[in-house]
Sequence to fold (113 residues):
Amino acid sequence: MAKNVAVVIQEDPRKTHRPVEALRIALGLSAGSHVTTVVLLGEATRLLGDETDDILDIEILEKYLPAIKQLEIPFIVPNTISQVVIQGDFFVKREDNETIRSFVQSMDCTLVF
Fold:
């Protein structure tokens, strides 16, 4: 049975490998019957940024980004002003913190990284 799944990524991809691994997991979930949405908080928005040179596991990230774009995996990011410029070819929705909180609580399953 298909589930609504949120993958929440809040760690800094410049300091740990976990954010890139979390995107890989989200991609795997999206390839199945699950409805998967990725929520990027804080520095995790760098995963979709124009400047990715300082991200750990950048070669793995670059391998999976085309599939993420092709599958049109939806992303939610906070609507606060960010220094990170997100690439325009992802399906990104900006929401306030309360809307993000409500969204995550409404999911059947949430994975937090």
